[in-house]
């Protein structure tokens, strides 16, 4: 096994395995990153590696052409990962944001400056470059690590996050206010219904409907989400902290 061979070579335990990229990992086994089933098989094998080697596995992936829609491929990945961090931004300044976490705060982590360094030329004479995180402090861009979302609202939060990734669109609040990323509330509701696990043998639909209504109402009352109805369609979005 490569991990054990690496430990023998360097003489210390390996604690972190980084795989770049997730899409190539799936393709290596003949899978399709757009298939929830194929993603599930890959994550099952990743868990086997973690259990056998006592390591943490970090998977590097990419967003699609529209970064606001999140990672490429099936959105089932949100249910498989323990933590997902996205890197976004234009130019030199980038921001790391926790998009999903189990039993941990979600939201912006920090911002940083990326510098391009040249260290030679290839056989065609083109420069060979690498991005390096600058030690320069990026003032005014760091965000609080705290999350305003209580654990009891986790499923609602994940459902809205998944809906924004799948069907989110830019929306101008009240027609002339700030632009936010919004989504039809029914998209979030459908995701919540799919992920909901009933503890009893009764009416599953009724069992899911009650916590959705209760927790969605709490989220609105605590100003965690906002919304407005346009042409009969109720759009919702996260309220910035």
List keywords for this structure.
10 strands, 34% helix, alpha+beta, four-stranded antiparallel sheet, 241 residues
Task: Give a quick summary of the entry.
The chain has 7 helices and 10 strands. By secondary structure, it is α+β, with helices and mostly antiparallel strands. Among the domains are: 2-81, no CATH class; 151-238, no CATH class.
Please provide a written account of the structure.
The chain is α+β, with helices and mostly antiparallel strands and 241 residues long. Among the domains are: 2-81, no CATH class; 151-238, no CATH class. The chain is 34% helix and 29% strand. It has helices spanning 2-10, 22-28, 36-53, 77-80, 154-167, 185-195, 204-221, and strands at 16-20, 56-60, 83-88, 93-101, 107-121, 127-133, 169-172, 179-184, 225-230, 233-238. It is globular. The N and C termini lie far apart (46 Å). Residues 140-146 have low confidence and may be disordered.
Give the total of beta strands.
10
Helix content: 25-40%
Q: What's the quaternary structure here?
A: single chain
The whole-angstrom Rg is 21 Å
**What class, by secondary structure content?**
alpha+beta
User: How are strands sequenced across the largest beta sheet?
Assistant: 3-4-5-6
Distance between the termini: 46 Å
Order of helices and strands: HEHHEHEEEEHEEHHEE
Hey, roughly how much beta strand do the residues contain? Answer: 25-35%
Figure out the total of helices.
7
Largest sheet: 4 strands, antiparallel
Shape estimate: globular
């Amino acid at each position: 096994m490569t991990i054990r061979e690496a430990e023998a070579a360097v003489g210390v335990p390996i604690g972190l395995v980084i795989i770049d990229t997730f899409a190539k990992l799936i393709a290596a086994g003949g899978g399709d990153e757009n298939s929830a089933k194929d993603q599930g098989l890959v994550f099952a094998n990743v868990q086997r590696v973690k259990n056998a080697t006592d390591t943490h596995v970090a998977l590097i992936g990419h967003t699609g052409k529209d970064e606001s829609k999140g990672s490429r491929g099936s959105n089932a990945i949100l249910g498989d990962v323990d933590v997902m961090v996205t890197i976004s931004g234009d130019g030199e300044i980038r921001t790391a944001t926790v998009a999903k976490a189990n039993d941990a705060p979600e939201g912006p982590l920090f911002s940083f400056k990326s510098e391009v360094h040249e260290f030679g030329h290839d056989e065609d004479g083109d420069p060979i470059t690498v991005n390096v995180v600058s030690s320069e402090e990026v003032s005014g861009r760091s965000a609080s690590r705290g999350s305003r979302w209580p654990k009891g609202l986790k499923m609602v939060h994940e459902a809205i996050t998944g809906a924004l990734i799948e069907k989110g669109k830019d929306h101008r609040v009240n027609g002339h206010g700030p632009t936010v990323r919004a989504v039809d509330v029914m998209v979030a509701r459908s995701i919540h219904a799919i992920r909901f696990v009933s503890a009893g043998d009764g009416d599953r639909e009724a069992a899911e409907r009650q916590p959705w209504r209760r927790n969605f109402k709490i989220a609105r009352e605590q100003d965690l989400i906002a919304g407005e109805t346009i042409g009969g369609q109720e759009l919702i979005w996260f309220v910035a902290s």
